[in-house]
Amino acid sequence: MKRQLPLALVFSFSLLMIIQYFIPHDISLYVNEFLLKWIYIIGIFAMALGIWSLVRVSMAKIKTKKEDWQYSIVTLVSLFLMILFGFDFFRHFFSAEGLKNQMFVHFFDYILIPIQASMFSLLAFFIASAAYRAFRAHSIVATLLLVSALIVMLRFNPYLGPVGAYMEKTASWLLNVPNLAAKRAIVIGIGLGSVATALKVMLGIERSYLGKD
Amino acid sequence: MNLFNRLMFLDRRWIFLLLALVCIITYVIPFEIPVTKTNEVRAIYNYIEALKPGDIIHLGVDYDPSSLAELHPMTYAIAEHAFRKNMKVIFTALSQNGPGMVDQAIRDLTDSMKLDRTYNGVFYKGREIKNGEDYAFLGYKPYPALVIYGMGQNYRIPFPSDYYGTPLDSIPIMKKVKNYDQVKCVVGIIAGNVADMWIVYGQGRYNFKLALGMTGVMGADYYPYLNTGQIFGIMGGLLGAAQYEDLADNQGPAKDGMRVQVFAHILIMIFIVLANIGFFMAKGSLMGKEVR
After folding, report:
1. Whether the Cβ atoms of residue B190 and residue B75 lie closer than 8 Å to each other
2. Cα distance from B222 to chain A (closest Cα, Å)?
3. ipTM of the complex as predicted
4. Do residues A58 and A72 touch, judged by C-beta distance below 8 A?
């Protein structure tokens, strides 16, 4: 029963969702709307679980003073501070304030945005270094990659003069012919793989989501 | 170690230093970089330009601050273009930090829209854009695929109220909007796989006009959808944003950033060429050695 019931639920709801997709009737739309709302409700439990898990792991790290345990304090303080600013406890108890709260906005604008933007900006340096080391013409395939990368990078460079137009045409051909052919093959492969996996889950062949017990 | 060997084993700190210098110098010294316009960006601009005052577009702000440099200018350029032409904009956010990005963009656009401006020879008098009348910000909901799918039936399924808690039926511009059928187009500004979801669960299912703005590295992946007509335009990275700014005659952060990008690319190419010269000249004597 522990296994049969989830399998039966998965099969029946999968079938229901497939059927409703092809029937644009009011009842079918109502069923779809109803089920979509259920997914959001389930999602809220996942969020609570995520927060609980983060708190538990961080607390354990602080208690046992594991390596870099100080960062766990920062994590927990940041988490609860943003939650605190996200609600308006004083005027409307427990009503969501979010971006209406100035402290929340300031923390977002002046702490989160610079941190995330800086982290991503560092990529430019690592990409430059990686490109210097990786783009070596040590084989035919590597040479093709190197030449293609240079052409695509150069395609809109305004300082190339008359060569620029040829670069643009060649880059456009690279994107629209070889790139497109490879991408289409990958996308079709992924699509067929997704259908096969979905069928396996629906028919109970793939059961890893049920766990080991 | 001879010169060619040195080219092969150049310490990466020199690369970091030179790149930093190029970025700082080109950012500080103001000069204009000509931008070549591509058909895929032109298609988005022309479509929005052809819409009438009062038409509604949906702008999906589906990125976090990490992609801000590339994608924020797109949001600014498209939203201002729409507002100047008296169109209405529905904002949604399908990434966790998206609401903050929308909020920042709305605050800046509110200030910018108060100024008189002339774009492409047309004078636009400054005005105040109002929440509910000129735009609606529906906020963030998790599970992007389901949100996109749900909005196709009714915006009220994933978003019963807007970000500020106002029920959708009480928002003037949302009163006449049930689903994608009432919006002229959806422009998704995206970092990550939400782009696939817009195509599969949105355009594929509900057949609306969809255009995508995305980070530079994602661009090449979405050309197949452009050729099939599933999307009518692509803006790729800072270059795409700069092209839109240029077409809208509204110089912004993307065109400023292009100075840095062009010269950083030139520097990277010089390094690649030098490394290859070193590689060929020193070939044989360096077999098996690793480059730091």
Report:
1. no
2. 8
3. 0.78
4. yes
Beta strands in B81-162 (DSSP E): 88-93, 117-119, 122-124, 135-140
* Spatial separation of the C-alpha atoms in residues B225 and B203, rounded to whole Å: 11
Q: What confidence tens digit (pLDDT) does each residue in A43-76 have? A: 888 888 999 999 999 999 999 999 899 999 999 9
**B55 near B278, Cβ under 8 Å?**
no
Domain ranges of chain B: 39-256
The pLDDT score that the predictor gives to residue B292 is 45
Q: Which residues pair with B234 in a beta bridge?
A: B212
List of chain B residues with pLDDT < 70: 1, 284-292
What span, in angstroms and rounded, lies between the C-alpha atoms of B198 and B157?
Answer: 17
- Whether residues A131 and B34 touch (CB distance < 8 A) is answered with no
β-bridge partners, B214: B190, B236
* Token pair for B2: 């001879």
Chain-chain contact of A135 with B280 (C-beta, under 8 angstroms): no
Q: Would you list the domain boundaries of chain A? A: 1-66
Residue type, B235: M
Q: Which residues in chain A are closer than 8 Å to B99, comparing Cβ atoms?
A: 98-99
For the domain covering B39-256, report its CATH number. Answer: 3.40.50
Of B143, B223, B280, the CB nearest to A180: B223
CA distances from B192 to A18, A189, B93 (A): 27, 20, 13
